[in-house]
Structures are given as structure tokens and as C-alpha cells.
Specification:
Blueprint (H helix, E strand, L loop, with lengths): L20 E9 L3 H12 L5 E3 L26 H14 L3 E3 L3 E5 L5 E5 L3 E10 L3 E3 L5 H5 L5 E2 L2 H4 L7 E5 L3 H11 L4 E5 L9 H9 L3 E4 L2 E7 L6 E8 L3 E8 L2 E4 L3 E3 L30 E3 L11 H20 L3
Parallel strand pairs: 1-2, 1-6, 2-3, 6-17, 8-15, 9-10, 9-15, 10-11
Antiparallel strand pairs: 4-5, 5-6, 7-16, 12-13, 13-14
Helix pairs in contact: 1-2, 1-7, 5-6
Length: about 325
């Protein structure tokens, strides 16, 4: 689910709806680990940040049942609980948290304008974009049904829960190969479900997959359904045979991992910000600065590689410090 609605960007005239323009020093878009961490730091720096949550308050982690790899939680914590803790901490230091969606932006001037819900304009000296990325799914009803009950889009996050069990990974690129290899070190068996008869992954990753004994590649298979009583217990696949023939195949699994990519929630910003081919916002290496002065990006919206809660939080901290330095030097 996109946190911020992708619309065609419109130029906002300074004369349009002038009475509905609110001026702030620091505007934060997004309420995941990056957004909330940026809010905590900018609040403590007395920058009076205003944070708009997007559609999904708390971001992707609110759909994660158990988190065991975030520092400081030795007994683990659920995603919604952790995000609620971060929200409370941001509010404790004075962050103004509001529900709303960025529907248009104008980064053409020194003051940055963001339209919220198509009717309110926020004019900010500095903007931190922490809108995250959305995992791609196959579009099966059963994916929604078993969300948090065997379906995951992050092997690094959830793989530990399937230690000694059988799982499946969908995809044929580097991400799928990496996740299958990672899971093979934890699980009894890993099925790699590949739609084509070849892997798109790099040669090195292909060799790793094909040489790992407990990975079985299911070539020319597509997942059409998942089944189970209280969680995922298996998957129904269609195997292509020849040009027209198909065979129904069922496999028993405890976990089903999507590794077919992510979509960064950056569409609304693309008119002004540089992105890569996938849409991840480009930042100056070692910083969270974008190509527009005063606009910063943190978390999964600018991170095509790690996509972890802890790295998102770290980049949120970086963005806050970058903003503080920028505002101190504003003329």
C-alpha cells in the first residue's frame, strides 16, 4: 500500500489558496522508523517539526507480527507496538503528528510547498521525505489472508521464525536468490519458485543457489494460491509444460516469501527530485541531501539495498542532523 498517493505534480501558485497556507520550519512526510526518528531528533533540536503520517500510520512494520532483530528489545516486540513506542517518543518531545497524505509538491522555490489531501498547503524551510517503499505482491487474495501468518516480504526480518521448517521464495532476480540462500541457512528446505526457465540473478548468485543442497528451484512455476487452517501450510502452483499444457502442483510449506521487488513511494516527488530507474530517491553519498537544497530523504524511499527498520531509523537520524545544519546556515 502506497503511503503517499502518486499523482501528477502541479505547480502551486503563491496566490492559490493563500489563506490555507501554513508555514513551518521542518516538515516530515512518513511515519515509519525513519520518519519518527527524524521527528525525535528535530524535536529535541527545537525545530518544531510537523509530521504527516501518510495512509498507513507506522508504515510497513505495522503489518509485522514479531520483531526480534531491532536493538533494545531482547524479548522481541510486535511491529505495531514498536511503532507506537516511537510515536509516543516523538510526541513526548513536541512533534506535531497529523494524519494526512502528500498529494502534490512544489520544490521550485526557496520555500518548499507540500499539498496535503489536495486542500492544505504546508510551506516549509526544510522537508524530510520518509515515505518508505511498498513490497510487490502477486495479487492473490490468500496473500492478504495470511499476512503475518506465513506470508512475508522480508526474509532477513522473518526468516528466523521458520528455522528448521520448509519455505518457498518467489522470484528470479538477485533479491530472490539472496533471500533463498539466506533462508537455506535456517530452514530445512527452500523452494525457489521461478516463473521462467532461467534466473535473472547475477552469475555469482545463480551459482550459490544451484550449489546449495537444500534449495530446490521450481522452474516455470507460478503460484496461484496458498492454503492452510491457521496459517500457511502449502502453496498451489501451476507448472507450464510445453506451449499450452499446464500441471497443478501443490507443495507443503510453512512460510511464503515474496522477493519480486519493492516500489518506493516517490511518485509525487519525481518532478523535482532525482531518482534511479526504480524510483528510489537519490541522495548525496554519506548524507540524506537530495538534488534540491533543503529537501532530504531517509529510510526505504532512498534505500534499495538494506530496507531494515534499524537502517531506516539511522538514516532518519542523519536527515534530522542534516536539516539542523541546513537551517542553521540558512540566509
Amino acid at each position: 500500500m502506497d503511503l503517499f498517493k502518486p499523482l501528477n505534480v502541479q505547480e502551486d501558485s503563491p496566490d492559490n489558496d493563500i489563506k490555507n497556507v501554513e508555514k513551518v520550519r521542518c516538515l516530515i512526510l512518513g511515519s515509519g522508523p525513519a520518519g519518527y526518528t527524524a521527528a525525535i531528533y528535530t524535536s529535541r533540536a527545537n525545530l518544531a517539526p510537523v509530521l504527516y503520517t501518510g495512509l498507513q500510520m507506522g508504515g510497513q512494520l505495522t503489518s509485522t507480527t514479531e520483531i526480534e532483530n531491532f536493538p533494545g528489545y531482547p524479548n522481541g516486540i510486535t511491529g505495531p507496538e514498536m511503532m507506537d513506542d516511537l510515536r509516543k517518543q516523538a510526541e513526548k518531545f513536541g512533534t506535531d503528528i497529523r494524519f494526512g497524505i502528500a498529494t502534490a509538491v512544489d520544490f521550485s522555490g526557496k520555500k518548499h510547498r507540500v499539498t496535503i489531501d489536495d486542500n492544505k498547503i504546508i510551506e516549509a524551510d526544510a522537508v524530510i521525505i520518509a515515505t518508505g517503499a511498498t513490497a510487490k505482491y502477486l495479487g492473490l487474495e490468500s496473500e492478504t489472508k495470511y499476512a503475518g501468518m506465513g506470508v512475508s516480504a522480508c526474509a532477513t526480518c522473518d526468516g528466523f521464525f521458520y528455522k528448521g521448517k520448509d519455505v518457498a521464495v518467489v522470484g528470479g532476480g538477485d533479491t530472490a536468490a539472496e533471500e533463498a540462500t539466506y533462508l537455506a541457512g535456517l530452514c530445512r528446505k527452500v523452494y525457489l519458485i521461478v516463473r521462467r526457465n532461467v534466473l535473472r540473478a547475477s552469475k555469482t548468485m545463480q551459482e550459490k543457489v544451484l550449489s546449495t543442497k537444500n534449495i530446490e528451484v521450481l522452474w516455470e512455476h507460478q503460484t496461484v494460491d496458498l492454503f492452510g487452517e491457521n496459517g500457511v501450510e502449502g502453496a498451489t502452483l501451476v507448472k507450464r509444460k510445453g506451449t499450452k499444457e499446464e500441471e497443478i502442483v501443490k507443495i507443503k510449506i510453512d512460510g511464503f516469501f515474496l522477493a519480486i521487488g519493492h516500489t518506493p513511494n516517490s511518485a509525487v516527488f519525481k518532478k523535482y527530485l532525482e531518482t534511479d530507474q526504480t524510483g528510489y530517491i537519490k541522495t548525496i553519498p554519506g548524507t540524506t541531501k537530495t538534488n534540491v537544497e533543503g529537501v532530504f530523504a531517509a529510510g526505504d524511499v532512498q534505500d534499495p539495498h538494506y530496507r531494515q527498520a534499524v537502517t531506516a531509523a539511522g538514516s532518519g537520524c542523519m536527515a534530522a542532523i542534516d536539516v539542523e545544519c541546513y537551517l542553521l546556515n540558512m540566509k
